[in-house]
Write a structure and sequence with these properties.
heterodimer, A: alpha+beta, Ubiquitin-like (UB roll), Fumarate Reductase Iron-sulfur Protein, Chain B, domain 2, 2 domains, 5-stranded mixed sheet, 11 helices, globular, B: mainly alpha, 3 helical TM bundles of succinate and fumarate reductases, 6 helices, about 70% helix
Chain lengths: ~290, ~140
C-alpha cells in the first residue's frame, strides 16, 4: 500500500455496518462516523470504536486481533477480508461498508453461524489416520521422520485458520448447500499428502461422491480471498487428480510411484553413561 | 432465528469483488446449459427426417441457414462452443494438476499460484478463440 502512505488519510471514516437482530424482518445498514485514531487503525478497531462509543448493541466476533484465530472474517466493500488484518488506510475514500460473510446464516449483525462449516470440516476426518501405525499414533513413543521436502508438500495447506472466507466466496457453495466447500476439501489434501498419514482412502470415500470434490469447478475465488495464502484451489485440484488416478486404478500399476510412509525415528540409545546411577524404581503403576 | 444469507445463483457472479476465473466459471455453466438445450433441439430437427422428406424440408424452411435470425443464433452457438471448449481445456489441465504450481511456504506476499499461473493459458486460449470467431464471422456473415 505504498501509494496510500503519501496521501493524507481522512480524519474520520464513514462506516456503514450491516445490522440484523433475530426477530427482525429485514436487515439494514447503519452509518457511523469513526475518527481515525492512529495511521494503522484497522477495520476491527473501527468496529470496536463503534461498539464502545456509539452503539453497544453491535455484535462482532473477534479474538486475537492479529490474523491468527480466524474469528473476524467479513466483507468490507464487497471483498472478503479479516477485519483485524485490513487497515482503514486501504480505503482512501474514507467510506467503508461492512457486511457479514455471505452463504452463512447470520446470527446477529456481523456474526455468522459457522456450525455447518465445522460439520463439513469434521466430515473429512481432519486428523492423522494410520491403521498400520495405530498403536504408535495413539501412544507415541518416537517421532516420525519427514524430510523438509515432504513437509513442504502439505505445510502451506496446514496454515488454514478456519475463518470460513473461502466458503463464503465460493460460487458453488452459493447454490449447493450440501457441497463440502473449499476448506474441507483443502483439508483432505493437507492430510492425504502428509507422509505420516495412511487414511487417504477413507477420505477419498468422503469426497469422491455427489456434492464432493467434483462440484468444484475451479473458480479460484477461495484462493483469491484466503487471508493466509493457503491456496485452497491448488489443494482441491491435487485432490481431483488423486481421485482420478485412484478411480482409474493407475496407482495400482507397478511403475506408478508408491506413496511414501514416514519412518519412525530410531529408538533412543538405552545405554547410560558411566557413573550415572539408575533411576529409582517407579512408585506409581504405569497407566 | 438466524437469517439465511445463501446467495443462490446470484452468488455465481455477485458473491463479492473477485477474480476473472469466477466469471469464466459462470460463463462455462451458462454455455454448458445452452449447449445441452441446443443438442436437444438439434436432435428434434434432424430427427424430422424420419417422418419423411416433406417434414425435413419444412423443418429446414423454419430453421435452415437461409433465415437471418437463425444465422445469428447459430453464430451465438459457435461462440458458446468455442468458449466452452477452450475454457474446458484450461479446466481439464488444471484439474489434473498440470501447470498450476506446487505448494510452497506462504511467505508474504502470499502465493496464489493456482490462479496466477494458468492466467497465461486464459490469454492464449481465449485469444485463439477470438481469432477463430473472427474468421467464423467472416464466413457466417460476409461470404455465405
Amino acid at each position: 500500500m505504498a501509494s496510500t502512505k503519501q496521501k493524507a488519510l481522512p480524519e474520520t471514516y464513514t462506516v456503514e455496518v450491516f445490522r440484523f437482530a433475530p426477530g427482525e424482518k429485514k436487515p439494514r445498514y447503519d452509518r457511523f462516523e469513526v475518527p481515525v485514531q492512529h495511521p494503522g487503525m484497522t477495520v476491527l478497531e473501527a468496529l470496536l470504536y463503534i461498539k464502545e462509543n456509539l452503539d453497544p448493541t453491535l455484535a462482532v466476533r473477534y479474538s486475537c486481533r492479529m490474523a491468527v484465530c480466524g474469528s473476524c472474517g467479513m466483507y468490507v466493500n464487497g471483498k472478503g477480508v479479516l477485519a483485524c488484518h485490513t487497515r482503514l488506510a486501504e480505503f482512501p475514500s474514507g467510506k467503508i461498508r461492512v457486511s457479514p460473510m455471505p452463504n452463512y446464516p447470520v446470527v446477529k449483525d456481523l456474526m455468522t453461524d459457522m456450525s455447518e462449516f465445522f460439520t463439513h470440516h469434521r466430515e473429512v476426518k481432519p486428523y492423522i489416520i494410520n491403521p498400520e501405525m495405530r498403536a504408535e499414533i495413539e501412544r507415541p513413543t518416537r517421532e516420525f521422520l519427514q524430510t523438509p521436502e515432504e513437509v513442504e508438500e502439505y505445510l502451506q495447506f496446514s496454515y488454514c485458520i478456519k475463518c470460513g472466507l473461502c466458503v463464503s466466496a465460493c460460487p458453488t457453495v452459493a447454490s449447493d448447500p450440501d457441497f463440502l466447500g473449499p476448506q474441507a476439501l483443502m483439508t483432505v489434501t493437507r492430510y492425504n499428502r502428509d507422509t505420516r498419514d495412511g487414511g487417504w482412502t477413507y477420505r477419498l470415500e468422503v469426497v469422491d461422491r455427489p456434492h464432493g470434490v467434483w462440484n468444484c469447478h475451479f473458480a479460484g475465488a477461495c484462493t483469491e480471498v484466503c487471508p493466509k495464502g493457503v491456496d485452497p484451489a491448488l489443494a482441491i485440484q491435487f485432490l481431483k487428480r488423486e481421485a482420478v488416478v485412484h478411480g482409474l486404478g493407475l496407482d495400482r500399476l507397478p511403475f506408478w510411484p508408491k506413496r511414501k510412509q514416514a519412518p519412525l525415528a530410531p529408538p533412543p540409545k538405552p545405554a547410560r553413561r558411566k557413573g550415572i546411577p539408575a533411576p529409582p524404581p517407579r512408585t506409581v503403576p504405569e497407566s | 432465528m438466524a437469517r439465511n444469507k445463501r446467495l443462490g445463483i446470484w452468488g455465481w457472479i455477485f458473491g463479492g469483488r473477485h477474480n476473472v476465473e469466477r466469471f469464466l466459471y459462470t460463463l462455462h455453466r451458462i454455455t454448458g446449459v445452452a449447449l445441452v438445450f441446443y443438442l436437444m433441439a438439434h436432435i428434434l430437427v434432424v430427427g424430422s427426417r424420419a417422418f419423411g422428406q416433406e417434414a425435413w424440408e419444412n423443418a429446414m424452411r423454419l430453421v435452415g441457414a437461409g433465415n437471418p435470425v437463425v444465422r445469428v443464433l447459430e453464430y451465438l452457438l459457435v461462440i458458446a462452443v468455442v468458449f466452452h471448449a477452450t475454457n474446458g481445456i484450461r479446466l481439464v489441465l488444471g484439474e489434473l494438476g498440470i501447470g498450476i504450481g506446487r505448494p510452497r511456504r506462504p511467505v508474504y506476499p502470499y502465493p496464489k499460484d493456482s490462479i496466477r499461473k494458468p492466467r497465461k493459458w486464459i490469454l492464449v486460449l481465449e485469444g485463439l478463440a477470438t481469432v477463430y470467431l473472427v474468421v467464423a464471422a467472416y464466413f457466417f456473415f460476409v461470404r455465405h
